[in-house]
C-alpha cells in the first residue's frame, strides 16, 4: 500500500523537470519532448487522484488523452518538418521567418 | 506481506527510472537518445498505472504511447538532419521557476491529501469501461477518430511531398 502523496509528489517532480526542459531549450523538438514529460506527469496526477474518487471515469479520460496525445504529436511533427523545409532550422527564435 | 514488499520495491525502482529518464530527456544533446529516454519514461508510467490497478490504461500506454507516439517522434527526427541543440543562457530563472512550482504543488498536495489517503490497487471492470465508452462518451470518441484521421492525412501529404521533391 503506497501513500497517494508519493504518486502526486512524483508527478510534481516530473512536471518541474518538464518546465525546466521547456524553458531552457531553443530547439523545437526538445521543447516537444519536454511537453511530453509534462503530459506524462499530468496523466499520473489524474490517475492517482481518480483512485479515490472515480476510477472508471479517470481511466476513460486517460485512454482518450493518450490517443489525443498521439494525434497532437503528429500535428506538431508535421508542422516542424514543414518549418525545417522552409527555413532549414528548428530554432524557435528563427520562427519569425515562417510567418505568411 | 511479500506482495506489499514487491509493490514497494517496484514503486521505488520505477520512480528512479522515471526521474532519471526525464532528466536525461532534458540533458542529452542527441535528439534520438532524448526520444528513446522518453520511451523509457512512458514505460515507467505504465508500471505506475499497473501498480495502481489500471491494467488496461497501462497496456494502452505501452501500445499507443510508446509503440506509436514515441516511434513517430523518432522517425520524424530521422527525417530531419542532425540539428544543434541550443540552450538559452539564463538557466537560473527557469530552474527557480520550476522549483517554485514544485514547492507550490507539494504544499497543495500536502494540504489536500495530507498523507491520509493511500493508493490501494483498484479493480476497474473492463466491460463497464467499454460500455461507458460506447454509450456515454460517443462524442469524444468521434472527435478522437477525426483527430487520428487528420494525423493520417498529414502523414500522407508529407510523404507525397517528399516523393515529389
Q: What can you tell me about this protein's structure?
A:
The complex is a heterodimer of chains A (100) and B (165). Chain A is mainly alpha-helical and 100 residues long. Chain A has one domain (4-98): Orthogonal Bundle (Helix Hairpins), CATH 1.10.287. Chain A is built from three helices and one strand; from the N terminus they run βααα. Chain A has helices at 4-24, 28-50, 55-87, and one strand at 2-3. Chain A is elongated. Chain B has two domains: 2-89, NADH-ubiquinone/plastoquinone oxidoreductase chain 6, subunit NuoJ (Four Helix Bundle (Hemerythrin (Met), subunit A)); 125-165. Chain B is 80% helix and 1% strand. Chain B is built from six helices and one strand, in the order ααααβαα. Chain B has helices spanning 2-27, 31-52, 55-79, 91-112, 126-135, 138-164; one strand at residues 118-119. In chain B, α1 (2-27) packs antiparallel against α2. The mean pLDDT of chain B is 84. At the A-B interface, β1, α1, α2 and α3 of A face α1, α2, α3, α4 and β1 of B.
Summary keywords:
heterodimer; A: 100 residues; mainly alpha; Helix Hairpins; B: 165 residues; Four Helix Bundle (Hemerythrin (Met), subunit A); 80% helix; 1% strand
How is this fold's topology laid out?
The complex is a heterodimer of chains A (100) and B (165).
Chain A: E1 2-3, H1 4-24, H2 28-50, H3 55-87
Helix pairs in contact in A: 1-2, 2-3
Chain B: H1 2-27, H2 31-52, H3 55-79, H4 91-112, E1 118-119, H5 126-135, H6 138-164
Helix pairs in contact in B: 1-2, 2-3
Question: Could you give a quick summary of the protein structure above?
Answer:
The complex is a heterodimer of chains A (100) and B (165). Chain A is mostly helical and 100 residues long. Chain A is 77% helix and 2% strand.
Amino acid at each position: 500500500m503506497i501513500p497517494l502523496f508519493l504518486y502526486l509528489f512524483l508527478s510534481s517532480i516530473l512536471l518541474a523537470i518538464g518546465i525546466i526542459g521547456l524553458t531552457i531549450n531553443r530547439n523545437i523538438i526538445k521543447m516537444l519532448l519536454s511537453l511530453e514529460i509534462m503530459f506524462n506527469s499530468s496523466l499520473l496526477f489524474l490517475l492517482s487522484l481518480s483512485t479515490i474518487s472515480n476510477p472508471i471515469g479517470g481511466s476513460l479520460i486517460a485512454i482518450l488523452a493518450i490517443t489525443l496525445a498521439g494525434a497532437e504529436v503528429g500535428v506538431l511533427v508535421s508542422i516542424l518538418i514543414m518549418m525545417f523545409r522552409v527555413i532549414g532550422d528548428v530554432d524557435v527564435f528563427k520562427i519569425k521567418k515562417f510567418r505568411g | 506481506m511479500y506482495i506489499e514488499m514487491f509493490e514497494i520495491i517496484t514503486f521505488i525502482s520505477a520512480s528512479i527510472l522515471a526521474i532519471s529518464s526525464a532528466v536525461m530527456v532534458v540533458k542529452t544533446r542527441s535528439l534520438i537518445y532524448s526520444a528513446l529516454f522518453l520511451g523509457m519514461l512512458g514505460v515507467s508510467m505504465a508500471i505506475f498505472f499497473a501498480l495502481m490497478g489500471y491494467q488496461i490504461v497501462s497496456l494502452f500506454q505501452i501500445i499507443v504511447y510508446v509503440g506509436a507516439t514515441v516511434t513517430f517522434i523518432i522517425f520524424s527526427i530521422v527525417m530531419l538532419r542532425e540539428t544543434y541543440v541550443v540552450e538559452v543562457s539564463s538557466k537560473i530563472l527557469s530552474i527557480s521557476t520550476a522549483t517554485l512550482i514544485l514547492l507550490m504543488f507539494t504544499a497543495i498536495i500536502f494540504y489536500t491529501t495530507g498523507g491520509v489517503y493511500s493508493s490501494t490497487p483498484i479493480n476497474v471492470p473492463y466491460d463497464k469501461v467499454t460500455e461507458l465508452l460506447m454509450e456515454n462518451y460517443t462524442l469524444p470518441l468521434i472527435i478522437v477518430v477525426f483527430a487520428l484521421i487528420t494525423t493520417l492525412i498529414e502523414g500522407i501529404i508529407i510523404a507525397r511531398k517528399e516523393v515529389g521533391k
